[in-house]
Amino acid sequence: MADYEEEIEETHTFTRKSTTTFKIEETSSSTTTKTITTPAKLYGKDLGAYDDVDVDELLAQLSPEEITMLAKEVDPDDSFLPPSQRTNYECTKEPTGPLDRKKLIDHINKQAIETPDRPELEPFVPGIVRGKKWIPPPQEKRMQEAEEQIAIDMGDEYETALSSATQEEIIDLAAILGFHSMMNQDQYHASLLNKGQPIGLGWDGITKSSIQKIFPAEAPNQTDPEEMVKRIRDDDSKLVDVNFNNIKTISDEQFEKLFDALTSNTHLEVLSLTNVGLTDRTALLLAQALERNRTLRVLNVETNFISPPVIVTLVKSLLTQMSIEEFRASNQRSQVLGNKIEMEITELVEKNTTLLRLGLHLEFNDARHRVAAHLQRNIDRNDPLHSHRYPDLLEALRAKRSRSRSTSQESGACRTLETGALHLLEPTSEEDDLEPIQMQKSELFLQIDSDSNVVEAS
Fold first, then answer.
1. Cα separations (Å) of 391 from 39, 409, 422, 442, 445?
2. Long-range contacts of range 390-396, CB-CB < 8 Å, 24 or more positions apart?
């Protein structure tokens, strides 16, 4: 009973609280505060006492050892000093000679192997998680509801086909639809070529690197420049295509003979001079030859050392004979032609009515779009049924169209092919029937009567 009463007394003592109240009275008296600043001192003297001290004189009195000790304690923030003089570290080891990378790597590997690993606070035991296991936070309710609401209704037919499809069929379907990120290259190419999927490479398979296919090196160009120049000079009728690509041993004298023979040749149609070391001097000779040659259709001078102004000269030379249909001159010494050069090339191309393909890298959109539009017009203009080749046919059909518009009969339909091509009108009355036009490989011959009606076409 005494013990019980003692516990009660201790409890009352623990919960006892004491409150102290302080009363602060404000007075109307003003207080003046004075702040006294103590001047900074260094080694017992004020800093102002060191203003007249000559630092150079003090440093002259120090010994080399004392200067070294002072330099270790001071780190000057001076960008004009080399880093070796601004750092406090000094290497006292003797130089070991020039750098030997292999010995350095062997030393680092040996030191890494000999250095013991740090002891683990908790040893590794298979199947037991050390430390606190990470648990992903629960997903928000609205996000979970949104995922549940996303559903695609493909219809019973497609859902039945996909549910019964095998894994290989699903992979083939993904390849056809272009889902490249869902498969590796082996699966994609096997689906396109219908070779069957590789064994063990499904959706859950391990992607392995495929063995690279080694292709043999391209055989060197065995064309003999001397022989080709001789055949071009002799105007060989069987020589229509000459390929000098990647032959870097052609001298300037051989180029001069080649371009001189090209001026009188009447059978050569294709000339390839890619990566042959063509310079401005020899390219100007080529431009002169192009002004006199009438049979060359394709010219390729890519990957050489032709400057942009000389490229303009080459494009300008194409306007003389109007026989070149394809001209390629990209990948030269100067990768960027510039706005002025590109505009000059654009104006020259727009004057050329026979050029169909141009191999040049044009940086500015204006030049690129204008050249592309003009080349497209040239392609349309060179169509077998174009008006500039058959002006009589175009005039006859235009007259027929004007008459058909004046009549009220509408027994046929009118079909017009625009963009500068031939306007072909189907018959609009029984009296003005057009006989079918048969296109042959040769020229199209038309006979026009006095009433501007097409009578016969063969």
1. 107, 28, 9, 17, 12
2. 390/422, 390/444, 390/446, 392/446, 392/448, 393/422, 393/446, 393/448, 393/454, 394/422, 394/423, 395/452, 396/446, 396/448, 396/452, 396/453, 396/454
- Please list the residues that pair with 241 across neighbouring strands: 270
In angstroms, the CA 434 to CA 248 distance is 60
pLDDT on residue 254? 94
**Separation between Cα atoms, residue 345 and residue 327, nearest integer Å:** 12
Q: Which residue type occupies 43?
A: Y
* pLDDT of 307: 93
Q: What is the pLDDT of residue 13?
A: 40
Three-state DSSP class for residue 189: helix
**Of 355, 377, 234, nearest in space to 296 by CA:** 355
Q: What is the largest CA-CA distance in the chain?
A: 147
| Digit-coded pLDDT (tens) for 202-250 | 666 666 677 788 888 888 999 999 999 999 999 999 999 999 999 999 9
How many whole angstroms separate alpha carbon 312 and alpha carbon 360?
Answer: 11
Tell me how far apart the alpha carbons of residues 381 and 411 are, in angstroms, rounded to a whole number. 32
* Distance separating alpha carbons of residues 395 and 448, to the nearest angstrom: 10
Structural tokens at position 291: 């002004």
Query: What's the confidence (pLDDT) of residue 147?
Result: 66
311 with 334: CB under 8 angstroms? no
User: Do residues 278 and 248 touch, judged by C-beta distance below 8 A?
Assistant: no
The burial of 288, by beta-carbon neighbours within 10 Å (0-12 exposed, 13-18 middle, 19 or more buried), is given as middle
d(CA 393, CA 386): 10
pTM over 0.85: no
**Average pLDDT of every residue of the chain:** 75
Model confidence at 366: pLDDT above 90? yes
Written as six digits, the tokens of 323 are 């026989």
AA identity, residue 427:
P
Q: What is the pLDDT of residues 395-447, one digit of tens each?
A: 555 565 555 554 444 333 333 333 333 333 333 333 333 333 333 333 333 33
The kind and range of the H/E element at 347 are helix 339-351
Q: How far is residue 7's CA from residue 46's CA, in Å, rounded to a whole number?
A: 68
Point out the least confidently predicted range of 104-113, 219-228, 362-371, 431-440: 431-440
3-state secondary structure of 42: strand
- For residue 176 the two structure tokens come to 């056809």
